[in-house]
Amino acid sequence: MSITEKVNLTTGSGWGSGPCVGNTGSVPRLGIPALCLQDGPNGVRFTDFVTHFPSGLAAASSFNKELIYKRGKAIGREHKAKGVHIALGPSIGPMGLKAKGGRNWESFGSDPYLQGVLGAATVKGIQEEGVVAVAKHLVGNEQEHFRQVGEWDHGDYDRLDSSISANIGDRAMHEVYLWPFADVVKAGVGGVMCGYNMVNNTYACENSYLLNYLLKEELGFQGFVVSDWGAQHSGVTSALSGLDMTMPGEVFDDWLGGKAYWGPLLTRAIYNQTIPQERLNDMASRILAPFFAMKSIQLPSEEEIPNFSSWTHHTYGQQFPYQHYGAIVQQNWHVDARSEINDEIGLELARQAVVLLKNKNRHLPINKDDGVRRLLVAGLAGGNDPNGFNCRDQKCTDGTLTSGWGSAAVNNPWVITAQEAISKKARERGITLDISEDNWDLERTEELADFADMTIVVVNSASGEGYIDVDCNYGDRNNVTLWHNGDELIERVTCHCKRVVVVVNAVGPVNMEKWIEHDHVVAVLFVPPTGQFVGAAIAEVLFGEVNPSGKLPFTIARKNSHYVDIRDSLGDCVDPQDNFERGVYLDYRFFEKHTIRPRFEFGHGLSYTKFSVSDLDICEINPPAEYLPCPPDYLPLSKTIQDDVCDPEDALFPHDEMDPVPGVIYPYLYSENIRSLEDDDCYDYPKGYDPDQKCEAPLAGGASGGNSALWETLYKVSAKVTNEGSMAGNYVAQLYIEFPSTIVASPPKVLRGFDKIFLQPNECGDVEFDVKHRDLSIWDADSQQWIIQTGTYKLYVSTSSRKVELCGEIEIGC
Ligand code: NOJ
Known about the structure:
TIM Barrel, binds 1-deoxynojirimycin, 6-stranded mixed sheet, globular, 3 domains, alpha/beta, Immunoglobulin-like, 814 residues, Rossmann fold, 20% strand, 17 helices
């Protein structure tokens, strides 16, 4: 490929300049079309006839690896059907450090192990369906405030000089934030997106230590790094620091301005040798690698292009709608990407995501024979949003929540609201039902509650991505309080009805202290954003057609002060610093360390049946070694790509072949670029930069996902689960490990396995966990390696992070 052809792959052609949210340039000579990058993690964004799948958080609540893999496949199939080449998901960061973090609902809960296993299952699923997955956001994007200069003009934003810096210690980086990225790299993920934030005071997308060393060297990532949209802040530095693709092409906040760090300037930097051509070859190889490395993914032909436009719902429109340029052409083919199987997967996952937090005296499932003949469904969050199912990017919150807002939102083809689904079930059972949707004028609700045998109060709380504010929640939530007067609604209803079931439809933890212990609050469900299926899942659980099996993928605290706060004001500084002071003590690990009793702990979730767990078995498969073996040397390069030494005149805009579209980014030089080529002095590479390949891998590295010994199973752990109740149901067994403190103190418990099993009444079955080398390792920052400490490891097979069923030990000697 010529220099301009390679550059064309690295640089987005500009916001709105192609059908997808990100479009690379094409290489017509080789039949490579512009590659389409489209959100996102929960389904295909900005189009019609697609499924709105349960969110990452909902997937995590199910603790069901197999189902999440199927969800990944379904999401992959729908992207494929729409002509997307590269799907911008899964989200495995944020890690859920902050309860109010706006985008926690996109990823898989507040634990690195959970995020890693579920991220990898999703990547496998998407890529097996022929679409490249992009894991995001690397790394530390734990809040939306201050993620980009110029995003907002309220409050402190006008003084903001740089994005917030996530300051992460080396141990927490390895054991928490980078951990799931190792899983997805091991699973063969094609792309990784670097985030908006800085990491230890260097922008993530130009952080050589993060991209070149941690990701590419230590984790052995061989795919491409793409910037988040506008997260690139330099040309040469980002290129040398390991960024391979910039999106959407132009600099942040100058959409359509045609100003880019790369494109023509990357071409110039190659010609004047500021950037070694080898680096460009590496970028292009990395971008194309996923299309050759996996049998399931083929490089698209010129015909295999998107059949939709992100920018209009109409069938026909101008070719470049944002640029107001070009002929009227067909933009949308309205291809139906949905299928019965995808619906089944979505609905099943939604059911399994519902978490039963409280069920006093077994008032649930609803039973007419228990005297529930009159139902009231109260709360606007149970009904239709008056703005419809599809506010742009799902920023409407005045009804049943299907998702948070932002780029991970998907258009709903329809929505089953809680009211609709509950009404249907009530009718079928001869139960009478009334509704009340006013959350402020509560007299009528009180009147209705007086007559109800049971009131189901549906309440919500939402958040989303930082470019949208809802009611002054700038992406992140301002608090963990229920929205729309939810607390008062519950309190007032409890004064009038003795059986109140609260359904919390929310993006994360909410404070329940005002009402959770009230005698009349007989049951509480937590329902994360579950896409279009939300109401169906709620009703099936309420009426006992489905036995709840969801588990909380985060902790709900009793006191707000137990959560990590959002950094939302600048104080005297202009470059906000966010020190991740919790270190490796994330979520339940913090509560356990300080023996703080949460309201509901990580992993908690009740069932309508009773399970017993017995017969713990721990079997050594491979003997544990304290230190990792040295990885093999890298293979010598079998081929080096010849540098293109053509005349810069060859890279001039081919005016005889085409006219430039205003605002579109091209790789070509303009004559003034050529003139400046001659002026450029010899450029010194940044200190420490070495274009030559090293021949020794770091001890922690050497293979995809890091040193291959890390992935060896050392122990197989199993236990027997028996369903002793009268209802069939799923059981989630969780394995927590307590490490010895020979070298360094560790959290009292860390999740290191989970398994879900479905059992009929009186049936028993085995749950199994593979404990890998990495699962017993700590990151030793001094020696820069993973070490298995000698000593006693306690293994807890548990029903939640606090409820241990079985306990065993592993002794590792020197
Ligand atoms: C910004 C978001 O942070 C990212 O997750 C998304 O993929 C891009 N925008 C593209 O929409």
